[in-house]
Amino acid sequence: MLQVENIDLHYGAAQALKGVWLKAETGKVTCLMGRNGVGKTSTLRAVAGQHGISAGRILWDGEDISSLAAHARARKGIAVVPQGREIFPLLSVKENLETGYAPIARKDRFI
Ligand SMILES: Nc1ncnc2c1ncn2[C@@H]1O[C@H](COP(=O)(O)OP(=O)(O)OP(=O)(O)O)[C@@H](O)[C@H]1O
Ligand SMILES: [Mg+2]
């Protein structure tokens, strides 16, 4: 479903990701783990198109989506639920997670 291949990501001159690979398969929950500041959020931003990559590529169902805008990736069902102060404070944890379903039709919403 999702294949991240050898991506680099920069914030200005600072390199946050170097040669990251990640694979997520349909029907499985994939967990990206690491210590603080290692680049988990940056990886998700790259997948969602919220921040550009400087090397590598991102495939969605075999299609290279590396240069697609964030809204075009959202239409394919790619969403990021933020952390920390970016959450909806009046929603529960479950409801916050469910906001990730927003771009896709109700009939397609499953885990
Ligand atoms: N907007 C930004 N501008 C500059 N550097 C940034 C920016 N966002 C993150 N970084 C840096 O990029 C690196 C990776 O950060 P990132 O937030 O992706 O890590 P993380 O694994 O999600 O961390 P945490 O466990 O704290 O959520 C860190 O060194 C961080 O300081
Ligand atoms: Mg993070």
Shape: globular
DSSP summary, beta strand count:
4
> In terms of per-residue confidence, which ranges show pLDDT below 50 for 5 or more consecutive residues?
none
- CATH superfamily membership of the domain at 2-77, which one? P-loop containing nucleotide triphosphate hydrolases
Helix segment tally: 3
What is the highest CATH level, the class of the domain at 2-77? Alpha Beta
In angstroms, what is the radius of gyration?
Answer: 14 Å
Going by CATH, the architecture of the domain at 2-77 would be 3-Layer(aba) Sandwich
* CA distance, first residue to last residue: 13 Å
Bound small molecules, by name, code or SMILES, are: adenosine-5'-triphosphate, magnesium ion
Strand content: 25-35%
How is the main sheet built?
4 strands, antiparallel
- Given the helix and strand composition, which structural class is it? alpha+beta
